[in-house]
Amino acid sequence: MIEELLPQTVVAVEAFGDEGVDAPLYPEEEALVARAVAKRRREFTAVRSCARRAMVKLGVPAGPVLPGERGAPVWPDGVAGSMTHCRGYCAAALVRAADLASLGIDAEPHAPLPEGVLSAVALPQEAERIGRLAGELPSVHWDRLLFSAKESVYKAWFPLTGKWLDFLEADLDLFPDPGEQGRGGFRATLLVPGPRVGGRVVDHFTGRWIADSGLIATAIAVPHS
Fold it and tell me: Which of 85, 103, 165, 178 has its CA 20 to 30 A from that of 52?
């Protein structure tokens, strides 16, 4: 799913169900989950198994993936990437840093958001837009899609800035692809000063989304220019 949403320079590896949950960890990783509950340990392990397989596909030595500032994964020198996991699914996407400035991916169950969450993550204009979309295309849970897209925005933003970005500091406009089922794109307009990339100030991100097999996935690839 994720690979469909990203440029060809990106390698993506996915796992479904219990795939990778018992993969070996590096000692540094093992120390991080030594006291974790079983669910946390399984997710941690499976997504790192995806990341290492992606490293091999990209042609870089596989190694530990440790959390850095605010929990963001620390990648090998010269590599940009992003990881995601939800119930029954995880994925990692990696790219040479020379090819893209940043990546952000997210996956969520294709189901409505829990009650009260939308009001905490959506601007009034976003809530109005997804209300219209829900009337036009009710097969998509637009509230969950908005949440996932905002997660991808943050994951693309943080490596470029090292700063927090609140859910309400980006205004997302979601749209379906004409004539396509469960496919589309989005534009995220930043409501705070954006990062400088390749001599330009980034004031928005663009991304892609897919809804399939009980999942929603979103992805952003930030070019250098």
Answer: 165
